[in-house]
Design brief:
5-stranded parallel beta sheet, 11-stranded mixed beta sheet
Length: 370
């Protein structure tokens, strides 16, 4: 590919280094109806001016995104997002406190939308999902363009999100888009923002992400008259991140459960047969492990990778999508990921929200025969 400091003429996509001059140029392109792909602290986004209906529709078209899946609107903070909302006095108070506590950062807040918000941004749901990203390039573009930017993740709909420039290129280098390269920046957290709904002084979690349920409980405990509730109270699709199948690698992904059968349950003449069937099932599979739990069985698989050999959940979240992307290039039948979702940790729901949506089903392997 040509030098990233200049526009690439051979392909429709153009890549820009993260300079102030280029951010001003990209702000102009946003106002002219073009799309930009930009890094954030969570995943890369593909964005457009929220008031440009044609550009917004182009995002849906390029990604093959369902028309009932709303976009997240990116703003600098509370004050420039306020015109997009239609909140009573109490909810506006909580909205500002949430913004003060968690923005800029990986929290998306869904609230009632004002009438100025174009209906193709929120899929005519009456709500708007807003967040304030914490990365200099997209913040500069919002500031220079003086417009909020609507942006889903920079991937094909349902596929693995992008956390680095190489992921973005694989998806979009043949499309007419503008891509920011910030010195090959890699997203800090590795997974999407947490999405919450704020209404009637109640917060509910619509999508688990880096901001955890524990973090939100701490916030609510600091104040009177606001609470975190279990009910989702969804009206149609008011928020992104509600589709059941998402974040999927190109190979089938299954959740691996290891179980132990009592010896007296298995007839001796069946043991060799079960061992052979098990070996054949696993030998062309890739195993994704956590905390080295399955390390002793790694030779049973075609390939083995550990999201975090020492059981660090933040490291596992950071590595998850990159591992999925790497395995897309491996010739294997399927991917198995060890079921570590029952390990108690504040980040368990965050990473397993992604894994559950990416997987087809659970499988059970008799540990006696490994």
């Amino acid at each position: 590919m040509a030098n990233i400091d200049s526009e690439i003429d051979k392909l429709e996509c153009k890549i820009y280094s993260n300079t102030d001059e280029n951010m001003k140029k990209l702000a102009d392109k946003i106002l002219e109806g073009e799309l930009i792909i930009f890094p954030t602290e969570t995943v890369y986004g593909i964005g457009a001016n929220i008031f440009d209906e044609k550009a917004i529709n182009e995002i849906f078209s390029i990604k093959n995104r369902p028309k009932n899946n709303p976009l997240i609107v990116h703003c600098l903070g509370y004050y420039d997002s306020k015109p997009l909302t239609d909140l009573n006095k109490k909810d506006d108070y909580w909205f500002k406190l949430l913004a003060d506590n968690f923005w800029p950062g990986p929290l998306t807040i869904v609230v009632k939308a004002s009438k100025i918000l174009p209906v193709n941004v929120n899929c005519n749901s009456g709500y708007v999902a807003i967040r304030s990203p914490n990365h200099k390039s997209i913040r500069s573009i919002i500031q220079y363009s003086q417009t909020p930017i609507a942006a889903p993740s920079a991937n094909m709909s349902g596929k693995v999100s992008s956390t680095c420039l190489d992921h973005v290129k694989k998806y979009f280098e043949s499309y007419k888009v503008n891509i920011i390269n910030d010195d090959d920046y890699i997203s800090i957290y590795g997974i999407e923002s947490t999405v919450i709904k704020l209404e009637d002084s109640e917060i509910s979690i619509l999508r688990h992400g880096f901001i955890t349920e524990f973090d939100l409980k701490l916030f609510c405990n600091k104040f009177d008259n606001i609470k975190l509730v279990d009910k989702l109270n969804l009206i149609n699709n008011i928020s992104p991140g509600q589709i059941n199948s998402h974040y999927c690698p190109n190979k089938p992904l299954y959740i691996l459960n290891l179980i132990s059968y009592p010896d007296d349950m298995i007839l001796n003449e069946k043991k060799e047969e079960i061992c052979n069937v098990t070996d054949n099932y696993l030998k062309n599979s890739i195993l994704i492990d956590f905390n080295s739990i399955c390390f002793e069985y790694k030779d049973k698989f075609l390939g083995y990778v550990d999201l975090s050999s020492n059981g660090d959940y933040k490291e596992a979240m950071f590595n998850l999508y990159n591992v999925f992307h790497q395995l897309n290039d491996i010739n294997c039948d399927k991917i198995l990921i060890y079921n570590f979702g029952n390990i108690e940790n504040i980040y368990t729901k965050s990473i397993w929200d992604k894994i559950n949506r990416a997987s087809k089903d659970s499988i059970f392997i008799p540990i006696n025969f490994l």
